[in-house]
Design goal:
Length: 162
């Protein structure tokens, strides 16, 4: 019974983030930006980041996608706000490992609400949906000029270049 209530709570958090996403929109002072697409289900995400004084000062996303991709983007923007790019990159790696189920002892506390997406590991077809925003964050923060190369995700690992 308790597990069922917890599952319902997690579902509700995902639905809330999808219906009223945090940091949805555009930035006027973006220093890093990218657009990525998930060809599997048609999700499209534009991510804009303002890095100021060595920290993520503001972040916004827009685009269309399924409930999981929109909720994950909302949760990701909440979790990385105020973090350094290096901290955000570490979070990308933790999230990727979490959703593919690589490490059952993985500390996911840094992911905040996004940690509830661990259940995506049970649904391989949804892994790309959940990692779209995180992959966009990785590409936008690691490109030399701050403008990631737009493209499509081709697998679920957040560090791939495709």
């Amino acid at each position: 019974m308790a597990l069922s209530k917890l599952d319902n709570l997690y579902r509700q958090v995902i639905l809330d983030h999808s219906a009223t996403p945090h940091h949805h929109g555009h930035l006027t002072g973006a220093t890093n930006e990218i657009e990525l697409r998930n060809p599997t289900c048609g999700d499209v995400l534009q991510l804009e980041i303002e890095v100021k004084d060595g920290k993520i000062a503001d972040i916004a996303f827009s685009g269309d996608g399924c409930t999981i991709s929109q909720a994950s983007a909302s949760m990701m923007t909440d979790a990385v706000m105020g973090k350094t790019p290096e901290q955000a990159e570490d979070m990308v790696q933790v999230f990727s490992k979490m959703v593919i189920g690589d490490d059952p002892d993985l500390d996911t506390s840094s992911l905040e609400d996004a940690a509830i997406l661990a259940g995506v590991a049970k649904f391989p077809a949804r892994i790309k949906c959940s990692t779209l925003a995180w992959k966009a964050l990785n590409k936008a923060l690691t490109s030399a000029d701050g403008t990631g190369v737009a493209g499509q995700i081709t697998n679920h690992q957040a560090t791939d270049d495709k």
